[in-house]
Amino acid sequence: MELKKIKFFLTVTIIALSSLLFNACAGSSNFNNGIKEVYYFRGLVHNVDKNVVTLSDGSVWRLNRFLITVNLTPVYVVLPRTLEPGYLFINGMSYRILGADSPDFIMPSFYHTGYYELIGSIDTVHGIVKLLDNSEWAVNPKDSTELKQWNANSEVVISQAKNEMINLRQDSKIRVRFLPTRIKKND
């Protein structure tokens, strides 16, 4: 009887793990399924001391490596709404945030909430950005020139309102509209 219980437990475990693996590997065409929710804000460098960056808002960030830049350089700080480390984007590079030395840095006046993901592909002819989660975004035709400067695999943040996409490495943004999945009918 004990052997039957073990076989049943192993079977249920294998099915559950297979289901989890399938869902993790299968692409999702629904927005926000797999995209990280984040806090983000744009700031300016006030001072740099090796791997410690002070921004003009007074926040102090310890990074995973040394940073060389000049004051007033724009940066984006992206902080996942989970326990994962955040990132600081500056001069086309990303730096992992090891810690914040000013606990009161998040003030409603300057942080935003949004969604973080990587660009999978860009169709500049039709003005479509496809993210790695398989969601598709139509780009406002007025931003088509800016879109031509973007590259696949770039990190982007989508605004909470889902009407703006920010390229974190290039410090540029475009207006977008989410395109719901088009279901193909079988004849």
List the helices and strands and how they pair.
Layout: H1 2-25, E1 36-49, E2 52-55, E3 60-63, E4 74-80, E5 87-90, E6 93-100, E7 112-123, E8 128-131, E9 136-139, H2 144-147, E10 155-159, E11 164-167, E12 172-179
Antiparallel strand pairs: 1-2, 1-4, 1-7, 2-3, 3-6, 4-5, 5-6, 7-8, 7-10, 8-9, 9-12, 10-11, 11-12
In summary, what is this structure?
This protein has helices at residues 2-25, 144-147, and strands at 36-49, 52-55, 60-63, 74-80, 87-90, 93-100, 112-123, 128-131, 136-139, 155-159, 164-167, 172-179. By secondary structure, it is mostly beta strands. It is elongated.
Strand elements, count: 12
Radius of gyration: 21 Å
Number of domains: 2
Q: Helical element count? A: 2
| Average pLDDT metric | 81
Judging from the principal axes of the Cα atoms, what is the shape?
elongated
- The helix-strand sequence is HEEEEEEEEEHEEE
